């Protein structure tokens, strides 16, 4: 018997990305994912500017804890204790900006470091999440900092529902 097959999809562009770039990224993503995983009932693909996800069951509005990865800068910082503290503090402030009265569920910001460097950060949730789920997703991601990125000049934790990134160089678009 032929089942009624449905697909559920979600696309997310980084909050600072222009509409045209977003459109290009989101139109390339499904082609790429289908060429890499042609027979899968679900898939997820990430680029710097966008993410695309699909599944044969309804995942919308639920936090995705299964798809997650870390990336980090190979360079170590000179004062790890202070740097790790500042990083967590910045990301926590941005997370709060992301889920409190922010319909884009996206925030960026920066903090000055002692050595005249600047630390830049970004936090974002997919817009199918409630404010409280966005908070939970980002809190959990930020708690991964010691596992992924302690003492590193840059890092990110990316999941299917939220992500953060920090660097000591400016990486968001004006």
What brief labels describe this structure?
174 residues; alpha+beta; Killer Toxin P4, Chain A; 2 domains; three-stranded antiparallel β-sheet; elongated; Gnk2-homologous domain-containing protein; GNK2
Please give the count of helices: 4
- The total of beta strands comes to 8
Structural class by sheet pairing and helices: alpha+beta
Identify the strand order in the major beta sheet.
4-7-8-6-5
Low-confidence stretches: none
Radius of gyration: 17 Å
CATH architecture of the largest domain: 2-Layer Sandwich
> Can you identify the CATH class of the largest domain?
Alpha Beta
Average pLDDT taken over every residue: 94
Helix content: 25-40%
The end-to-end distance, rounded to whole angstroms, is 54 Å
Under CATH, the homologous superfamily of the largest domain reads: Gnk2 domain, C-X8-C-X2-C motif
Query: Helix and strand succession?
Result: EHEEEHEEHHEE
CATH topology of the largest domain: Killer Toxin P4, Chain A
Oligomeric category: single chain
- Shape category: elongated
% residues in beta strands? 25-35%
Count of discrete structural domains: 2
Biggest pleated sheet: 5 strands, antiparallel
């Amino acid at each position: 018997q032929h089942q009624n097959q449905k697909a559920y999809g979600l696309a997310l562009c980084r909050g600072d990305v222009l509409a045209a770039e977003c459109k290009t990224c989101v139109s390339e993503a499904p082609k790429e994912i289908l060429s890499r995983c042609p027979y899968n009932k679900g898939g997820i693909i990430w680029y710097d500017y966008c993410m695309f996800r699909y599944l044969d069951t309804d995942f919308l509005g639920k936090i995705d804890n299964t798809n997650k990865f870390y990336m980090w800068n190979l360079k170590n910082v000179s004062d790890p204790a202070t740097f790790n503290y500042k990083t967590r503090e910045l990301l926590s402030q941005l997370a709060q900006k992301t889920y409190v009265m922010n319909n884009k569920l996206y925030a960026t910001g920066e903090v000055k470091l002692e050595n005249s460097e600047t630390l830049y950060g970004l936090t974002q949730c997919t817009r199918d999440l409630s404010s409280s789920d966005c908070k939970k997703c980002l809190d959990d991601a930020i708690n991964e900092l010691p596992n992924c990125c302690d003492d590193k000049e840059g890092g990110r934790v990316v999941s299917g529902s939220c992500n953060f990134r920090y660097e000591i160089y400016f990486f968001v678009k004006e």
